[in-house]
Amino acid sequence: MLMQGFTTVMGLINLVILALAVFAFVDGAIRREDAYRAADKQTKQFWLIILGIAVVVNLLPIPGLGMLLTLAGLVASIVYIVDVRPALKQISGGGRGGRRRGGSSSDGPYGPFNGR
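That's the DUF2516 family protein sequence above. Prediction below.
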């Protein structure tokens, strides 16, 4: 019974890791190529290859190095989501529809730069 519970928990963890990798891959695929260059975050092709490998490694049971490759894919997915994705969103103009939220072009992350 304990082993069955452990297998269930590991299956759920693997499912979450796979979902994270698929999300990162799909998000990377829909971003513009020039945004990667503008954000200075490698290339779109580089990230799609890395994240695609992460998805494949999570889908295929690989004996031996499987856990190590899964961990490497998890790290790549987290790096994309935490570092690359916000930079691409900032370059592309923010959230939905490419529109910026209120503020002027002189606004920084903590308010206006004009001394107010």
